[in-house]
Amino acid sequence: MGTREREVLARGDMPRHVAVIMDGNGRWAKRRHRPRIFGHREGMKSVRRVIEAAADLEIPYLTLFAFSQENWKRPRAEVEALMTLLKRYIDSERDELVEKGIRVKAIGELDRLEPVAGDALDRLIEATAAGEALTVTLCLSYGGRTEIVEAARRAMKAARAGEMDPEDLDEETFAGLLYTADLPDPDLLIRTSGELRVSNFLLWQIAYTELYVTDILWPDFDRQALVEAIAAYQERERRFGTVHA
Ligand code: FPP
User: Fold this and answer.
1) Is residue 218 in contact with ligand 1, taking CB distance under 6 Å?
2) pLDDT tens by residue, 65-100
3) Does 23 participate in catalysis according to the annotation?
């Protein structure tokens, strides 16, 4: 552990939940005159590094935007390569994740995943279910608006079935109907590669989240970059809409 890491840890104000929009794999590859998938493959290494760093820093929740609903519109070859990469990642990391006590969850329209990736994912979720060190949530075929619509649909069905009084629906019960029902809201949202957009990610959950955008492209994002994001977070004054004396 480096000096900077120790300094950040010593401040004590660590985020409980870090969410990441992993962007820039394509640009990283393009700069090297390589196909986009080369960037995704390199991005997978960043996923491994960041999970390891988060576990070492004792961050309890890490949520990664791995594949958006919009990503289905990419060329078929790229989508297939991403599915293959996901399967390969799962197969190569499973034992280590279990050993390190890392619990993997997945949210999104998981039934749309290619069966090879979906089945491997189900097995990974099951194999890591007892992990207590860090919960990694992979967002796959994920869209924030769809998540909210699905929660609204659940509430309406419960009301129609007489299980819920519409008057009892409040922010807390609604949050309990989202995919993230058992996760705290993110404290810090990191977006790589400089884009100043939320891109339909965790729309409900980021109401009070600190946003941190870095120009670093995802394949170049490493442990040190995560530590710097956390240091920036620690320098913010979180007021949640109130005033501090
Ligand atoms: C954004 O880069 C990244 C993605 C769409 C996919 C993220 C995938 C990985 C990091 C690798 C696999 C992940 C796991 C969990 C195994 P982009 O292609 O949008 O880059 P660009 O904006 O430069 O084109």
Assistant:
1) yes
2) 999 999 999 999 999 999 999 999 999 999 999 999
3) yes
Question: Is 71 a residue of the active site?
Answer: yes
Angle, CA of 62, 39 and 233, to the nearest 5°? 35
Contact 103, 130 (CB under 8 A): yes
The beta strand positions in the chain, using DSSP E, are 17-21, 61-68, 102-107, 134-142, 188-191, 210-213
65 lines ligand 1 (CB under 6 A): no
Domain residues of the chain, as ranges?
15-143+188-234
What is the number of other CB atoms lying within 10 angstroms of the CB of residue 50?
A: 24
Taking the CA of residue 147 as centre, how many other CA atoms within 13 Å lie in the half-sphere pointing to its CB?
25
Q: Kindly report, residue by residue over 142-174, the tens digit of the pLDDT.
A: 999 999 999 999 999 999 999 999 999 999 999
- pLDDT for the residue numbered 245: 64
Catalytic residue among 71, 122, 200, 220: 71
Residue 185 DSSP one-character state:
P
Query: Which pair of structure tokens corresponds to residue 238?
Result: 């979180």
Q: How far is the CA of 223 from the centre of ligand 1 (A)?
A: 18
Under DSSP, is residue 206 helix (H, G, I), strand (E, B) or coil?
coil
Dihedral over alpha carbons 42, 183, 142, 58 (to 10 degrees): 0
Q: What is the CATH number of domain 15-143+188-234?
A: 3.40.1180.10
Q: Which residue has the tokens 């990664």?
A: 64
Query: Which residue, chain included where needed, has tokens 């992979």?
Result: 138
